[in-house]
Every structure is written in C-alpha cells, then in structure tokens.
Amino acid sequence: MAQDTLTVTDNRTGKVYVIPIRYGTYPEYGASISAMDLRQIKVSENDFGLLSFDPGLTNTETTASAITFIDGERGILRYRGYPIEQLAEKSTFLEVAYLLIHGKLPTFAEFTDWTNKIVQNMLIHESIKKFLDGFHSNAHAMGVFVGTLGAKSTFYPAAKNVLDPKQRMRETINIIASVPTIAAYTYRHSCGLPYVYPDPSLSYIYNFLSMLFRMQPGKEEIYHNPVIERALDVLFILHADHEQNCSTTTMRTVGSALSDPYSAISAAAGALYGQLHGGANQEALEMLSQIGTKENIPAFIERVKNHETRLMGFGHRVYKNYDPRAKIIKKMADQVLEVTGPDPLIDVARELECIALSDEYFIKRKLYPNVDFYSGIIYKALGFPVDMFPVLFALARTAGWLSHWLELMGNEDERKIVRPRQQYVGEDVREYVPMDDRT
Ligand code: CMC
Q1: pLDDT in tens, 318-363
Q2: Are 120 and 113 in contact, with CB atoms under 8 Å apart?
Q3: Ligand 1 pocket: which of 370, 373, 392 to mutate (most atoms <8 Å of CB)?
Q4: What topology does CATH give the domain 91-412?
Q5: What is the tens place of the pLDDT at every residue in 271-303?
Q6: What single-letter DSSP state applies at residue 20?
Q7: CA 349 to centroid of ligand 1, rounded, Å
Q8: 329 lines ligand 1 (CB under 6 A)
Q9: Whole-number Å distance between alpha carbons of 284 and 182
Q10: 316 among known catalytic residues
Q11: Domain spans of the chain?
Q12: Which of 196, 201, 195 is closest to 115 using CA atoms?
C-alpha cells in the first residue's frame, strides 16, 4: 500500500530511515520532507547529521503560507484563492490589500472602515520632508524610497512592539497609507517640484496621482483620466504579492529577528531594487529603448543567445509558461496608449516577444514575458522616469510584504529567527604568521 513516507538508505552506514512526506492544499504541488528529519542521518554519534545544500533556495520551502498560490507550469496566480484575472477585472488595489492582509474579501462596512483608515493616514511626518530634501536631486528614486522607509522606523518607536497584534495592524495601516506619499514625494523631489499633500477626500489611487502630478504642466490630462486611474489600480493589484520571492523572503527573514516592520520593509525594498527582481522593469524599458527599432531585434536576440546579455522582462524562476500578469498588462498597455498617444517601443516589444517565443533558445528554456516586460511601457506613457518604475512595484508589493510579515508574526510555531547553515570549504586550522614573516 502506498505510504506518505520516504525511505532513505545511508550507504555510508547501511542504515535505513523512514521520513514522513508533508503536503500543502494541493498534494501534487509542494510535497516535501522536513529538513530537520535529515538531521538523524549520521555516520556516528558525534556527527552533526545530514543537511540539505540549496544555494538560491531553488528547491526549499521556507514556510507554509495561506496567502498566494502559483502554478508556474500552467501560469496560474491566485491571492487567497481568488484568480488574479478576476481580481484585476473586478477589484481595486485597496480591496486586494485587505484580502491579502485579512485573508477574506471585506464586507461593505469593513471596506469603508479600511479605506477611511488608510486614506486618513496618508499624511507623513513633516520632518520626513526635510529628510527627503537631504537626498541629491539625481539620487535614484528607489534608493530614496528604501532609505526613507528605513528612516521611518525612528519616527515610530512603538512599532518595535512586534509581538502585539494590535500594534502590528496599526503599523500595517500606517505603512500601506504612507508608501504612496513617500513615492510621490520622491518623484517631486527629483523634479524639484513642491510636495503636494494627500487629500483625505480623494481615493487612494487618485490621491497618489494628485500628489505626483498636480501643478505640473502637461500632466493634468494624466491625473484626471479614469482609464489611467484604473490602469494604475490594476498594475498595483498585479504586483501586490507573489509568494516567497527574494524580497518577501527578505521581509520574513528580517521580521524573524523581531525587527520593526519599517526596517524589515526597507530591507525587502532593497532586495526588490535589484535588476534581477523589481529593477527588471527599468532594465526592460532601457533595453527596448536601446534596441530602438524592429530591424535591430535579430542582432539583439543573437547577443542574448550568445549569453552576452539577457532579454530583460523575460524568464522566471517559477513561471515556465506565460506570466498571467504579463497577459493582462499587455492588453492594458494598449488602452493606456490610446489615452497618452502611441509609443513605437510597444511595437518593438511585441515583435521581440514574437521572435523570442518562436526561437529554440527561449522555447527550450521555457522563457516567456514576465510582469516587467510590458509594465515599463505603461509607466513611461504615464510620464514616470525609469528610476521610479521599481518604486511603483515596491509601493504595490508593500501589501504582500506586510501580509507575509503578519502571517509569520502570528505563527508562534514557525516564528524562528532565520539562520541557515553553510558548508565550510575553507582552510583547515593554521598558525598565525607575523606580518614580517609573510612572503
Ligand atoms: N534572457 C536570456 N536567457 C535567459 C533569461 C533571459 N531573460 N532568463 C534565463 N535565461 C537562461 C539562462 O541564461 C540559462 O541558460 P543556460 O542554461 O544556457 O545557462 C537558463 O535560461 C536558466 O536561467 P537561470 O538564470 O538559471 O534561471 P533562474 O530561474 O535562476 O532566473 C530570472 C530567473 C528571472 C532571474 C531570469 O530569468 C532573468 O534573469 N530574467 C531577466 C530579469 C527579469 O526579467 N527579472 C524579473 C523577474 S519577474 C519579477 C520578479 O518577480 O522579480
């Protein structure tokens, strides 16, 4: 009879071990063994026991999470069980943030209360403006964003009470409310424009657009347009969570040390800043600009295939199919460009996708467009400079980071400080040599 166990024979000793197999909601995904069950496998009593070696955590589950489900082979993404396509069509970012944080869709009364709390907390401490002013006007927007989030922890000392669930929820609301303001102020600072305060009578997204573009010649069209408002809302929904990626794992790792959520989220945003993660949308747009015209695509593809460069916005550790978020963003890019005017880069992007998807190199490696391939075209159309792209990603991902942090902090059994092991491959013990005797 089939059993949910794994039988392992250690050929060094001939001993046989029976290790239980654990499952998540879907047995066909995520069957795993507990790494600690390997520890009993020893050659002698003094042996530390067997460990698993997994740089990049490519085959390691670090948590059991009820937030987001991804089937990378079939291109499926769900938040709390709801398909991303339905949320993108019917929901709003603030409702999705509620869903991620609380695990259920809100009733009308819950949603009204949630929205009011968030919108009323969008104003940031006046001193943070001075702090922002200290950054050079050409500082990378993501560097400013990361630094300001970290600095915010000094304004909220009570946030250190991370073991208090009420305090955790207060800071969660405060952070979701303040990230659009920090992002908008970052942008205004880089343009040398006066900061625009949030207005509690406006919606979350419209507030963000207003703080970005008010009193800016040529931008009124953008911030008054419902298509643009909806496009930003949908982009935020699509970026809100993506289970255990590099930045979310960073959030959980820093959170596991019981650091305050501002420090943890600043670290998570720092991870997102990297060009292989949230920085890829900036890289993808810069790549499209460098390619410039369709005629240059074949030469560029050859360089990619020779491993001289990567096709940014393509490929994913988990998706081995079309990223469902990219499908939605590709369609939305057309709607946005109808409002803002045509951009030849979308034709370059479409042609690049078409050529790549029919090329053996990409087919063999299952490389498809990811969330970053088309999002940059929309951000550019909205008038954002490229270094704001990862900030927009981070703003939306804040809801996901916080939901994972809350899940971790609320689970006393799993809330262990992250402390992996290493395999030491360095020198054996050696005697210290005085400097004069060294050759
Ligand atoms: N262009 C060209 N070749 C690629 C690409 C790409 N974008 N991505 C992977 N490959 C190749 C890679 O060279 C390797 O080929 P080979 O076996 O001949 O050495 C093979 O595919 C496997 O690549 P890998 O680097 O081992 O795959 P990974 O799972 O470690 O990397 C990735 C995932 C996202 C870092 C990678 O696909 C990549 O660098 N993509 C471009 C950057 C990008 O768009 N990142 C955004 C990801 S989505 C947003 C997010 O969640 O952060």
Answers
A1: 899 999 999 999 999 999 999 888 899 999 999 999 999 999 999 9
A2: no
A3: 370
A4: Citrate Synthase; domain 1 (1.10.580)
A5: 999 988 888 888 899 999 999 999 999 999 999
A6: E
A7: 18
A8: no
A9: 24
A10: yes
A11: 2-57, 91-412
A12: 201
